[in-house]
Amino acid sequence: MIIGIDDTDSNEGMCTTYLGALLLEELQEYGTMEALPLLVRLNPTIPYKTRGNAAVALKLKTDWPEKVIAHVTSRIEELARMECEKTNPGAVFIQEKDYESLKLVLLSFLEKAVKDVVEIETAKHLISELGISSKSFKNGRGLIGALAACGAMLNPEKWDCTFEHLAYRRKENWGSLRDVNKESFFEADRQTYPGTWDTVDLANRLVVCVPHSADPVLFGIRGESPELVDKAAALIQAEPVERSAVYRTNQGTDMHLLPAACISEIRDMHSYRLEGTVSAAPKTIEGGHVIFAVRDRKGDEIDCAAFEPTKNFRVLVRKLVPGDQIILSGSVTSGTLNIEKIQITALAPLYGEENPKCPECGKHMKSAGQGQGFRCKKCGTQALSKVRCEAERDLEPGIYEVPPCARRHLAKPLARERCQNIRIYPSR
Ligand code: ATP
Question: How far is the CA of 323 from the centre of ligand 1 (A)?
Fold first, then answer.
């Protein structure tokens, strides 16, 4: 049986992955787990999300499906933060006999939930049309994520994956400051990067894998394999852990990106890979956000932003000039593309002015005094004004990303890129 669950948490506590980790242990009473638990990240622009728009799925070999459904339902009732308006839990149960017939339809549902906006009615309609068992609470919006997570579990070979070791706090510590040895995270990163990533942010000297909210997560180490995330987690020194789980995930895969052929097809609440030319120089606006315009081949334009939380990434963005050719990845909200990565494919020539060169000796002339033009002292040659020259660009073609502290869960870190012939910045 595949069990998909979503929308059990609120900003004040809980986390659907924690419920997943509890069930991973508790459901052993009814059978055996057949795969690693799944943590899927869905459309990052969805306003209903609490934090990272995550849903989970478990795969259990069992002869007691009714008992499993009853157990999962009662745990959701006990643990979900029902008092929160935004918490609308949903759980979906797929019987083994239906795996084949539901595989493709739920794969396309997963794709839609990651890249597009899904109505609750669409999920409910699919559930009744396909005869899927489900439980929903309040408006049942969690059914969307629960169905999508089942789609991911049914099709593990159809999507790129990474892994996350999630360590959970003891209940008595929930809500208090997390007691962690920061240096141990830097050491874990030193020993396992690039097999693991986003444990720390070296440039900003931050530990980024420890949340600050009241949820039960102590830390989460992301990486390329279960062995690597476990190796890094074993190096962490921190308060005692209640339990931990390694999830298979679609984090760090760019699964949310749609190819945008042109700007006119771009819609809010979707994420894209867009090719274009810088058409207006970057401006820093109130709050420290850096905005510039990009134009496509048809002449349409879109505003692109490196917001303040992207920190040092904005230094790079400010160096762009009109005419630079770029490929951007990012999500669009309120008509602005929020940049996750930028590939600079060609730099526009930048012109400045310099003192003219002496036609005799080839050296730069010196000013002959205010309003008196320029003169070569050695040869006596003269010129009236400065001349246009090509200025050096303090920027290299290559691919650049926001720092780990500003990374979207789904954005593929450059540590995972195996691209050739493209320089990657910042390099480590
Ligand atoms: P956390 O990740 O911290 O556990 P969360 O950020 O996952 O919390 P949820 O509480 O799961 O937030 O809320 C997200 C809600 O949005 C869920 O009900 C989910 O079903 C729904 N949802 C997910 N993807 C889409 C989508 N593409 N279109 C519409 N609704 C969606």
Answer: 39
Nearest alpha-carbon partner for 2 in 55, 41, 44: 55
Ligand 1 pocket mutation, candidates 45, 115, 117, 144, criterion most atoms within 8 A of CB: 144
pLDDT in tens, 249-276: 999 999 999 999 999 999 999 999 999 9
What are the pocket residues of ligand 1 if the criterion is a CB atom closer than 6 Å to any ligand atom? 6-7, 9, 15-16, 42-43, 46, 48-54, 88, 113, 116-118, 141-142, 144-145
**Smallest CA separation from ligand 1 atom 13, residue:** 49
Identify the H or E element spanning 245: strand 241-249
Tell me: the pLDDT tens digits for 27-52? 999 999 999 999 999 999 999 888 89
Put simply, whether the predicted model's pTM sits higher than 0.70 gets the answer yes
* CA-16 nearest atom, ligand 1: 4
pLDDT in tens, 10-23: 778 789 999 999 99
Atom number of ligand 1 nearest to Cα 117? 28
Per-residue 3-state assignment (H helix, E strand, C coil) for 1-25: CEEEEECCCECCECCHHHHHHHHHH
* φ, ψ of residue 186 in degrees (nearest 5): -65, -35
Nearest to 329 by CA among 398, 279, 256, 280: 256
Q: Residue 401 pLDDT more than 60?
A: yes
